[in-house]
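Continued from yesterday's entry.
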Amino acid sequence: MSVVRTARPRGLLLVLLGSLPGLMAVLALALYARGVARPARIPLDRPAALDLRSAAPGTGSTHLAGRPLIVPRSAWLDATTAHTQPPPRYDDKVIAVFVHHTDSPNDYACADTPEIIRRLYAGQTGARQWDDIGYNFLVDRCGTIYEGRAGGVDRAVTGAHAQGFNHRTAGIAAIGTFTAGVPVPRAMTDAVAALAAWKLGLAGVDPRERVRLVSSNGLSRFRAGTTVTLPAVAGHNDGFMTTCPGAALTARLPEIRRTAARLQGRATAPAPPAAQPPLSP
């Protein structure tokens, strides 16, 4: 009898312990929905842990960065706001990211980020008549990453963020205006670097390198059909005639590239770039 009485509490304890991760996950989601919990800062003093489940099949890359926490579309888009849109379009992989700023106020509370993204979505799908928000991801000043364009954060979703260079790229929008002299929050640049490290790592791309892209639109800086070499972590102004992402954020791109490379576990110095064809005017 004593054996039975001892086994029951132990069995109950094992059941409770086994349920604890699920209960904690539910609690975290509930707190996040209420704006109480926010994602922890990404540790950048060491390479991110490899998440082989995020690897694209057949990449064979040894520089896969861990996937950062990404808040889903459902956190900012509801049934009353969303409109009917066509199915997402996809590319084979993402070999470059374009960094943008949203040209919106900087003094927002991070708890209001979902409302800010909702307004951006309404403007782009309303007055501009786009089929969805153009950016694949958005990052607020607290370093929280949000899913933007529909189609799956782990897939190469074709965006509408860099005219002429939407294919094989991802658009990351920093929420705010970062013209010359405006401080750029460290949490924001850290998050952009972590996101770039993960997305580019899936294709085996070093964030410090330059990659070949083909312009699909003559309204970009290059004629349609022109093959050009651009930074793997580029500013919007690298491919289009614009001041985006602003002088202050543009000045932080070298640091973002270095941090992203470190998160991929790469050596301090990048490999020499491959020979590239001359650029067309």
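--- second protein ---
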Amino acid sequence: MQTVLVVDDDSEIRDVIHIYLRNEGYQVLEAEDGIQALELLKAHPVQLLILDVMMPRLDGIKTCLKIRESSDIPIIMLSAKEEDIDKITGLSTGADDYVTKPFNPLELLARVKAQFRRQSYGMKSADAAAELMVQDLTINKDRHTVFLKDKEISLTPLEFSILELLASHPGQVFSADKIYERVWNEPSGYSDNTVMVHIRNLREKMGDSPREPRYIKTVWGVGYKIEK
């Protein structure tokens, strides 16, 4: 049984999410702030985290950063803020997805299912070639590791999946919508600027200049590609 940890200081929101997740067969743990969440993650195996941004003691942004020091567990951020900069901040800290409040519980449930589908797809494709080479990048699909020369680059699961998708199809241009559909395993209606933010994060981690990128190239008005 897959376990989801719901972290929000609003008990009513936790209760609603808990009910919807439980009805779909998930086991649910709850925490009211980041400190409790970190304690539960140490004590229980958790497969996905729903994390509110604004919380007392330890907020969602700091909690996400702390988790990413040692775990690549999928994280869906919740926030009442709707500005693009807030989404970018949440995704830049390592979150995999972002949902603004007030939200439709069915939409949040769809996002949860999409994250688990993506994990399942990654497991099924493990029999493909284990390593991809892009210039001085080495991408190991079995171990989910990326090395730039001899230095390992720490990527979130979604960042890795985007890089793997592009590197597996050298020269092919993928639109942002197509990347979202392939990596998130859901229709692109929710994509807004999510893919752009993850591409930006990837480039920063690989030391790739957006103006003269070596690895992920932008085809203006079309999408992104990698050429070996």
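The chain has a mean pLDDT of 85. The helical segments are 11-23, 34-43, 60-68, 84-92, 105-124, 157-168, 176-184, 194-206. Will compare against the first tomorrow.
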